[in-house]
Amino acid sequence: MRTDRFTFAGESLQAGERAHFELPAGRLPSGTELHLPIEVVNGAGAGPTVWLSGAVHGDEVVGVEIIRQVLELIDERTLSGVVVAAPVVNVFGFVTESRYLPDRRDLNRSFPGSARGPLASRLARTFVDEVLSICDFGIDFHAGSDDRTNLAQLRGDMEDAETRRIALAFAPPVIVHAKTIPGSLRHTAVKLNKRVLLFEGGEPRRFSLAAVDAGVAGTLRALQALSMIDSAPPAPLEPTLESGKTRWVRAPRGGIFRLECALGDRVRKGQRIGIITGPAGRGGEKVKASAHGLVLGHAVNPLVHLGDGLVHIAEVREAASGS
Ligand SMILES: [Zn+2]
User: Fold this and answer.
1) Residue 294: strand pairing partners
2) CATH for 6-225, among 3.20.20.150, 2.70.70.10, 3.30.420.40, 3.40.630.10?
3) Angstrom distance (rounded) from CA 164 to CA 156
4) How far apart are CA 219 and CA 221, in angstroms?
5) How far is the CA of 66 from the centre of ligand 1 (A)?
6) Are the beta carbons of 317 and 282 closer than 8 angstroms?
7) CB distance 259 to 298 below 8 Å
8) Tens digit of each residue's pLDDT (9 = 90 or more) over 117-135
9) How far is residue 167's CA from residue 174's CA, in Å, rounded to a whole number?
10) Ligand 1 centroid, distance to 186 Cα (angstroms)
11) Cα–Cα nearest to 264, from 309, 201, 321
12) Contact 58/34 with Cβ under 8 angstroms?
């Protein structure tokens, strides 16, 4: 049992205490003030401080549900370390079911932010100062954007041995080694020497049950790998695949797209994976896989324009631990 206290937003929590916070997030043009909801679970035992962030893109609600379930499943009396959960970071986009803020700014391109910038920039700054800066490790939960759905996957710096160890413990269907994008939460976290994984799964404005289940079980396995909890669901029987290269198959013409593959399917280069027709069904053009690989994501809106991303293919290999 720890005796030291954990301080969050100027308030002191005892070991084994859970508390809810509402951080000022900014005002709407109407003057209405919105708040950033944070749940802090201060475990009875000593351990790392981990953040879980959802809905940085306001319409990506999969992470909100994953974090809600994880908060229900962990117990402050048996937890070692601290979980700082921010299920809805972009509170503005969440209420308007939008990826962006009301001024169309992307919160995930506004980090590390500034106390005197636009709304997105201030919100990013609040998150960095109050959450990121006090944590050791975190998982940022996302879903597909722009009418796309994603297979549950983790993105992160797999060259960092500890990040890789935790990602393998999470055991998602796929791990994608991905560079960080300047302005993103992940980029800022890395710059602050925090370890971070980005979870992707499902589509915006929907709960994809497969993605939610993979996210909840994987997060619990990651917390177990960090010695914060004693038990977690067993890893899936299918091995985790790893990818360093992904590519979109794009629409060779505009029209009505009919998908002929599913998330997680293995496809071969040149294989037919869909067809685009006109509304009357004539003049169809086959859509073919541009590489051997795994279907990582795909468009869900059948109306497509020339050049739209249709199917996201990952070139994969089985992930080997310890390499
Ligand atoms: Zn996102």
Assistant:
1) 266, 314
2) 3.40.630.10
3) 8
4) 5
5) 14
6) no
7) yes
8) 999 999 999 999 999 999 9
9) 10
10) 11
11) 201
12) no
